[in-house]
């Protein structure tokens, strides 16, 4: 048996394997701070899927200091009873469970209630609200709150706790990091002084809960900032932390404000983002070391543990994508694991829009109780037109439920617009979705006919009971003078048109426009310059921050000129004329103009067949959106029919 699936001891807690589920604030929380049915269903499904230990989302030590809106907490004895019922259910699967205990501190949303968030020092938090420096006299009360929360966790049946002290974030993180801590008393200045509050919290929890009650410490192996803590700082701190009661170190990295793409690494970040620092810390620690950060590939995780580079792996988004990640890997069913492509669209992106998190490849995340996978009452012949992500996702679910599914695809291969999306720099990971869905369709007996145009004659010949149109969208060109001289961004990304150099204008500063700009520069074979022209006041609107931050940095390094607040009026020879708040402005000297202003739904068959066949339209063919919405619609229809 591979080491990943061997038992693992942390103080008094024995875990059946070396996999942990990372805490991820996903917007499922209850107003009363307890675990509701939605959250319970979500975690229970992962416990059933074989994960060894679940680390519950941020749990505030103070019920009056919420983290993100509705925040988990131990409010009273009644809430502890509710938690005990939940932990009993998790334990029934042989899974351990611990809460991530924290005082939100500077990251509290208390400012919205007229209470300034507290911190080690005065500085603007992530929401640009000024924090209040805690007085030294207030700190014993903070320490007591941590001890009380630890005791409540133990009474509620949790198997231990995790303390959040990473990312120069929340209260303990703000004290530990020189980026935030500017104090001039004994809680500031030196590394050990900055760690003093953490030491006191550890001592208090151990005294209250006992030495055998495990404490895992989440810490940044490196804050990856010239002003922040380094891995050498953390290595020096390890013996002190062990002395004060840390039983296991979880190594993360980066900081929340400056390096958000290092905390939740998305496109362009390496897998096992924090492994280097974790290895260094393991070399000096006597307690177990586990690591988190873009752990997506089960085989790689097995290899890292076999090599004893770390003692355990903390998996987040990959368990959103597939709750059976651990069990499938244990059985060697790697190709059946629904892959996380590190896009951040459903998990991070939906949260930034104040919506419950989801997952592109698994829209059932957070909706486990809404869908019961049962065989179809009647097996039907279903024709799916289009083998993009929506068409393949629908075909997979329908065939899995027992329907006979044929997919007609007019191109030579599946994937639709994802074939273009994965060609942009740093986005190759997107291709994993299509590889997976094609393999799943094969496994469930879906027939895919390539280079097949679905018209009325073809549909009549196949004689389906149901037709699903997933024909996607077509790019649009700006309706301005000179539009015939524009090049569609899709023709660049597909390789149909090559621009090896020159001075290129890309009209449209959304995700496709930015990707096209990067693609042009990456594939240039001579002097190349790109100007992005966007009507809005900023580029990259709607992009996940964890992708946008490094992308903007790359554009700056490539010296891409960005023109915002500029509505294109006309294109004449080499000049683009735009309308701005200050009037019309001409931008001359372009050798090529590329248009990336969006797409429109394309479903010409619907009107032709809707009165003859039971017909549904999904994905971009219905309404242009992201892959998240396309797969969600496919799943909902797949469970409905």
UniProtKB/TrEMBL annotation:
Domain NADH:flavin oxidoreductase/NADH oxidase N-terminal: start-end pairs: 3-335
Keyword Disulfide bond recorded: no
Keywords recorded for this protein, A-Z: Flavoprotein, FMN, Iron, Iron-sulfur, Metal-binding, Oxidoreductase
Entry superkingdom: Bacteria
Pfam families: Oxidored_FMN (PF00724), Pyr_redox_2 (PF07992)
GO molecular-function term, one example from the UniProt record: metal ion binding
Stored InterPro entries: Aldolase_TIM, FAD/NAD-bd_sf, FAD/NAD-binding_dom, NADH:flavin_oxidoreductase, OxRdtase_FMN_N
Cofactors: FMN; [4Fe-4S] cluster
Domain FAD/NAD(P)-binding, first and last residues per copy: 381-608
CDD domains, per database record: OYE_like_FMN_family
Record family assignment: In the N-terminal section; belongs to the NADH:flavin oxidoreductase/NADH oxidase family.
PANTHER family xref list: 2,4-DIENOYL-COA REDUCTASE, 2,4-DIENOYL-COA REDUCTASE [(2E)-ENOYL-COA-PRODUCING]
Protein's name according to its UniProt entry: FAD-dependent oxidoreductase
């Amino acid at each position: 048996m591979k080491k990943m699936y061997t038992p693992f001891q942390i103080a008094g807690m024995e875990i059946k394997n070396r996999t942990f589920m990372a805490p991820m604030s996903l917007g499922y929380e209850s107003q009363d701070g307890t675990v509701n049915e939605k959250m319970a269903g979500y975690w229970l499904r992962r416990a059933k899927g074989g994960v060894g230990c679940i680390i519950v989302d941020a749990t505030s030590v103070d019920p009056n200091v919420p983290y993100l809106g509705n925040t988990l907490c131990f409010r009273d004895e009644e809430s502890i009873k509710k938690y005990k019922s939940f932990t009993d259910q998790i334990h029934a699967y042989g899974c351990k469970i611990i809460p991530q205990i924290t005082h939100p501190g500077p990251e509290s949303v208390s400012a919205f209630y007229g209470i300034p968030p507290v911190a080690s020092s005065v500085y603007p938090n992530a929401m640009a609200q000024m924090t209040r420096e805690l007085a030294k006299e207030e700190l014993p009360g903070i320490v007591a709150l941590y001890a009380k929360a630890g005791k409540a966790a133990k009474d509620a049946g949790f198997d231990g706790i995790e303390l959040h002290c990473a990312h120069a974030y929340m209260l303990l993180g703000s004290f530990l990091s020189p980026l935030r801590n500017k104090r001039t008393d004994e809680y500031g200045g030196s590394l050990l002084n900055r760690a003093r509050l953490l030491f006191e919290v550890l001592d208090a929890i151990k005294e209250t809960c006992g030495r055998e009650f495990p404490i895992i410490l989440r810490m940044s192996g490196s804050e990856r900032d010239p002003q922040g803590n380094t891995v050498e700082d953390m290595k020096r701190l390890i013996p002190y932390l062990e002395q004060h009661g840390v039983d296991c170190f979880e190594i993360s990295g980066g900081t929340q404000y400056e390096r958000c793409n290092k905390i939740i690494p998305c496109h362009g970040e390496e897998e096992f983002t924090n492994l280097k620092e974790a290895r260094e810390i393991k070399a000096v620690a006597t307690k177990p070391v586990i690591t988190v950060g873009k752990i997506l590939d089960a085989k790689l995780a097995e290899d890292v543990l076999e090599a004893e580079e770390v003692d355990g792996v903390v998996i987040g988004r990959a368990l959103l994508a597939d709750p059976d990640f651990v069990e499938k890997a244990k059985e060697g069913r790697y190709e059946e694991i629904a892959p996380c492509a590190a896009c951040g669209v459903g998990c991070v992106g939906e949260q930034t829009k104040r919506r419950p998190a989801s997952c592109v490849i698994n829209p059932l995340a957070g909706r486990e109780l809404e869908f019961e996978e049962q065989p179809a009452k009647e097996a039907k012949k279903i024709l799916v037109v289009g083998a993009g992500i929506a068409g393949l996702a629908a075909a997979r679910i329908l065939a899995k439920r027992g329907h006979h599914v044929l997919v007609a695809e007019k191109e030579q291969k599946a994937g639709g617009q994802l074939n273009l999306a994965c060609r942009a720099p740093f986005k190759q990971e997107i291709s994993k979705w299509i590889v997976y869905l094609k393999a799943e369709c094969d496994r469930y007996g879906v027939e895919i006919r390539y280079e097949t145009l679905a018209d009325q004659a073809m549909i009549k010949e196949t004689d389906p009971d149901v037709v699903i149109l997933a024909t996607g969208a077509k790019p649009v060109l700006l309706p301005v003078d000179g539009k015939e001289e524009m090049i569609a961004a899709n023709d660049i990304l597909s390789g149909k048109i090559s621009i090896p150099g020159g001075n290129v204008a890309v009209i449209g500063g959304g995700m496709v426009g930015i990707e096209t700009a990067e693609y042009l520069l990456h594939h240039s074979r001579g002097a190349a310059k790109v100007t992005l022209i966007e009507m809005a006041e900023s580029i990259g609107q709607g992009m996940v921050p964890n992708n946008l931050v490094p992308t903007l940095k790359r554009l700056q390094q490539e010296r891409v000129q960005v023109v915002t607040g500029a509505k294109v009026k006309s294109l004449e020879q080499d000049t683009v004329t735009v309308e701005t708040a200050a009037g019309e402005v001409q931008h001359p000297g372009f050798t090529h103009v590329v248009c990336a202003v969006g797409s429109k739904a394309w479903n010409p068959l619907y009107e032709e067949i809707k009165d003859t066949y039971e017909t549904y339209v999904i994905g971009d063919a219905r309404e242009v959106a992201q892959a998240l919405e396309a797969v969600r619609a496919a799943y909902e229809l797949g469970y409905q029919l």
